[in-house]
Design goal:
This protein is mostly beta strands. The chain is about 10% helix and about 55% strand. The chain is built from 1 helix and 7 strands; from the N terminus they run ββββαβββ. It has one helix at about 35-45; strands spanning about 10, 15, 20-25, 30-35, 55-60, 65-80, 80-89. A hairpin with a 5-residue loop joins strand 5 (about 55-60) and strand 6.
Length: about 90
Amino acid sequence: MSRMSSVYLEIDEFEITDVTRHYYADGKAHFKFNRNTRNTRIYIHLKSKEDQRMKLIYKDENGTLQVDSHLALTSITCKDGVITVNMER
């Protein structure tokens, strides 16, 4: 069953702001966020972590804080000021 996360996302102790799209279901996470001064540092950090396991903290559809530490960062891109991140088990 699919779950949509709320806007709160955190990876490797970096809270991600300006989230525009967020999805977590079936062991896959996908989200987009606007590139800004703070998020540029996060982008650089994440770019160096591709194919590595990371801890994702998010709020589920009920607003409950959830943690998944079994996700690997499969791709991260930045186009037109929007950063896209894909993770999976």
